[in-house]
């Protein structure tokens, strides 16, 4: 690492030492950008890296709401507007008790490069709250969302910042948020994506992240002389990304044998019955362990980590950050895993990623592999601006083209700047080059 990069990283650690997820993401990104920094000595004088790792704006706010017992509750809301060099801020809102500034900043930093990789004109941001939607009534979720938007609305807009869903934010929450935005501003505009189909949503947005993950994983396999048909697949999580990854990889000829939630995982050697999972998760909002009541030949195991000890050819972590540690990575490698496609954001620790790469496992990092969601969100923005709705097939075809385009970019960047097949470096570099060029062109802002 050059003196310049090291200095930026050291400064970042000094100022944000307690933000471990943010430092983890920044360390990985800055380390892999070194070949670009070497070729562009002018970046140091322009303070480019210092600007790149510092959000343009981080907004923190109080979210008071009234529970069903009439008690006032208070949560903390966040919106980090990280980088608008190539377009309005764009990135999801996460509702989960673990949410803090470190997590939102790591997600925002990643989002900048992810959005750049899509080739679409969107900058990076992220937000959310430590509110836990689990166990809350619809009315409580609505009151929370209305209060959250009552502060957020003044910071966003269709050409300013366009939030979307993430963990804990699906169609229901986007609907409540959108309703409140419209009520306060009187504007019917594409200020959020992931909207319902009756009020400006895009067909295939729900499926986009999971489908996109499979398109990119397949492109990576093919480029390395392999393919999906006949593969055994393990998918963690059973939320939006996991469900549609399961649907697409199964359609491609893979067999998914395990899925999970934050309590445990189910193993179904005959292949996961996705209709059962959808009913449990999308309709009844129940736990994954109920799967075995509908499919008695399957087994349920308490705890999440064990899912990575199940032998598979393809692993698709689609739950949350740092869910694959070094021990889990080594278990997957020992069982012969050939490819890992990250559906969740930063699901592998730095040590796990290094272990996969050392073992020559094909590894598609999140910012490339899960970019399908934000890509279709950007297509939703285009449709809203045009006041048009494209067909499912049209959106899906564009999504497939975008994901294959992303793979081509990260493959080429890995070959040109790093080591062929190092898609972690390839994704960081390909994403960064466009943002860096735009930032240089716009001066020291
Ligand atoms: P959902 O809330 O729909 O689902 C999340 C799933 O992960 C649930 O099964 C949940 O289980 C599980 N999970 C959450 N936290 C933990 C934890 N700490 N330990 C173990 N399991 C956990 O979220 P999404 O599917 O939308 O998001 C999943 C991941 O994909 C996140 O990292 C998100 O940032 C990323 N992503 C999502 C995009 C999207 O379009 N939705 C786009 C790009 C990335 P439980 O129900 O028990 O909490």
What does this protein look like?
There is one protein chain. This protein has 18 helices and twelve strands. The protein is an alpha/beta fold. The chain has two domains: 3-188, Rossmann fold (3-Layer(aba) Sandwich), CATH 3.40.50.10860; 206-364, NAD(P)-binding Rossmann-like Domain (Rossmann fold). Helix 6 (101-117) packs across helix 18 (423-441), helix 9 packs across helix 10 (240-251) and helix 9 crosses helix 16. Bound molecules: NADPH dihydro-nicotinamide-adenine-dinucleotide phosphate. NADPH dihydro-nicotinamide-adenine-dinucleotide phosphate is lined by residues 165-168, 209, 237-242, 261-263, 304, 318-320, 323, 343-345, 370, 373.
List the helices and strands and how they pair.
Layout: H1 3-16, H2 20-32, H3 34-39, H4 42-45, H5 48-52, E1 57-66, E2 72-83, E3 89-95, H6 101-117, E4 124-129, H7 138-152, E5 161-164, H8 171-185, H9 205-223, E6 232-236, H10 240-251, E7 255-260, E8 264-267, H11 274-283, H12 291-294, E9 299-302, E10 314-317, H13 326-334, E11 339-341, H14 350-358, E12 362-364, H15 366-369, H16 372-386, H17 392-417, H18 423-441
Parallel strand pairs: 3-4, 3-5, 6-7, 6-10, 10-11, 11-12
Antiparallel strand pairs: 1-2, 2-4, 7-8, 8-9
The structure holds NADPH dihydro-nicotinamide-adenine-dinucleotide phosphate (NDP).
């Amino acid at each position: 690492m050059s003196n310049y990069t090291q200095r930026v990283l050291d400064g970042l650690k000094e100022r944000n030492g307690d933000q471990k997820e943010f430092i983890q993401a920044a360390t990985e990104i800055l380390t892999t950008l070194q070949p670009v920094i070497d070729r562009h000595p002018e970046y140091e004088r322009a303070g480019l890296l210092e600007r790149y790792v510092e959000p343009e704006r981080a907004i923190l706010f109080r979210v008071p709401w009234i529970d069903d017992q009439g008690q006032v509750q208070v949560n903390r809301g966040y919106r980090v507007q990280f980088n608008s060099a190539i377009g309005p801020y764009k990135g999801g809102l996460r509702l989960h008790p673990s949410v803090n500034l470190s997590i939102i900043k790591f997600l925002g930093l990643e989002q900048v490069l992810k959005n750049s990789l899509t080739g679409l004109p969107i900058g990076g941001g992220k937000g959310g709250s430590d509110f836990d939607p689990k166990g809350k009534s619809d009315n409580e979720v609505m009151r929370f969302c209305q209060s959250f938007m009552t502060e957020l609305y003044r910071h966003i807009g269709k050409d300013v910042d366009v939030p979307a869903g993430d963990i804990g934010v699906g169609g229901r929450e986007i609907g409540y948020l959108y309703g409140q935005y419209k009520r306060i501003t009187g504007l019917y505009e594409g200020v959020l994506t992931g909207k319902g189909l009756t009020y400006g949503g895009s067909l295939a947005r729900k499926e986009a992240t999971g489908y996109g993950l499979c398109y990119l994983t397949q492109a990576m396999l093919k480029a390395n002389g392999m393919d999906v048909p006949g593969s055994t697949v393990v998918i963690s999580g059973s939320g939006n990304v996991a469900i549609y990854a399961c649907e697409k990889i199964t359609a491609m000829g893979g067999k998914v044998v395990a899925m999970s939630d934050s309590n445990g995982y189910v193993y179904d050697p005959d292949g996961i019955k996705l209709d059962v999972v959808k009913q449990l998760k999308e309709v009844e909002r129940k736990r994954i362990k109920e799967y075995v009541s509908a499919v008695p030949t399957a087994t349920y195991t308490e705890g999440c980590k064990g899912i990575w000890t199940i032998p598979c050819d393809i692993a698709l972590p689609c739950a949350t950050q740092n869910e694959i540690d070094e021990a889990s990575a080594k278990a997957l490698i020992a069982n012969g895993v050939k490819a890992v496609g990250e559906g969740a954001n930063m699901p592998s620790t730095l040590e796990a990623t290094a272990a996969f790469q050392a073992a020559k496992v094909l590894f598609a990092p999140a910012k490339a592999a899960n970019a399908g969601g934000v890509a279709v969100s950007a297509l939703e923005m285009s449709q809203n601006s045009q006041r048009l709705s494209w067909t499912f097939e049209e959106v899906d075809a564009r999504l497939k083209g975008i994901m294959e385009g992303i793979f081509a970019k990260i493959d080429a960047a890995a070959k040109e700047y790093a080591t062929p097949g190092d898609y972690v470096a390839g994704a960081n570099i390909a994403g960064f080059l466009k943002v860096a060029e735009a930032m240089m062109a716009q001066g020291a802002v």
